[in-house]
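COURSE: Structural Biology Practicum
ASSIGNMENT: Worksheet 4, Part C
STUDENT ID: 0417
INSTRUCTIONS: Below are two proteins. For each, the amino acid sequence is given first, followed by its structure token string. Answer the questions at the end about the second protein only.

PROTEIN I
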Amino acid sequence: MKNTILSIIVMLVASIPLLAQNVAQKKYELPELHTIKVITLSPSYSCRGNDQSQGYGDTALFLSEHSKQRRGVPDLLFNGACGSEDFFAPSTAGDDFSLIADLGAKVSLKEISARRAFSVKLITSYAEYSKFVKVAKVELNHTYAVLWNESDKRGLLVFKVTEYVPNEKVVLEYAVKAYQIMPNNRIQSKGFDFDKSNN
């Protein structure tokens, strides 16, 4: 009898972290990983009419309630001034060091793992590594990888442009490969400034 009670207690204690994780995931409505979804972003953020100028509207991808409500900062922005080239921006605010890489036109979204986002051909060669930059030009049929590095979020997104009308709309197939939020109790060095030089 003691062994049975002890076994039940051990199982309950062992399940507490899993229950806490499930509660946190529901609270912040975190995205499902490795599942391809489709979204239309329209129009480009900087080519909206006056009636569309409040917030991001449909110009941005928000993957969690945390991004949408608490931060008001999208996970990916479709942007471009009217008549100019459109681009994707994964970084839109303050201490955001997020980057994006264009993986090319002949890359299947279904085959991109987290490892392949950094080297599509899995070859250890500088020429074959993905080149991550601040923004990336919108290109039809190209696949991209977004690496988030923010004070309260980090993760990896891969997506492919399946339809594109300049300044008007872009249709994406996307899959989230990693997504973590750190809403409280961040420990960080004080004094960050995007423009400050060194002493």
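PROTEIN II
(use this one for the questions)
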Amino acid sequence: MKVPEQRLRAASFEELAMPLFDQLYNFARWLTQDTAEAEDLVQETYAKALRGFSSFQMGTNFRAWMYRILRNSFLSSRTGLKPAVALDDETDESLLLAESATPESILIEQADREIVQQALADLPLPFREILLLCEVEEMSYQEIAETLAIPIGTVMSRLFRARKALRDLLRKKNEGGQHDM
């Protein structure tokens, strides 16, 4: 969400920041693995962003700016030192209850989701973070580069390595499950 110069003058912080609240909270939940800590992190992010709003550079990506503030706040907090990140446990039950869903298919889907969540939690933080920003938050490579303050080439190579590591973990978990039967 690039903000043109004329819009920044006319726009208030609230108009730009509030539409991002749910996305930022969701990302904070995944980073912190705790609802209360995620709420604190988002609150801290908004407070810092409001204080620094006058330094926001016109014509740059406001969404990436907000994510960067959240990420930096997380990394500088005691929570950021934790090694694991979990996916949000809240799922959209309507997705599970498709017309063709059977109890067996729902259980299989839940088991698959848990396997992926565990594999993602087992990845190193830089890999989890880049996968979440790309696949869940649907950020472009440019937005990820701005958020993480890394070159686009690094985004692409880290994303490639993260996907490969996740695929390898899932393959190992799948092979382990077959041997257990």
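ANSWER KEY EXCERPT:
Q1: DSSP finds ten helices and no strands in the chain.
Q2: The radius of gyration is 18 Å.
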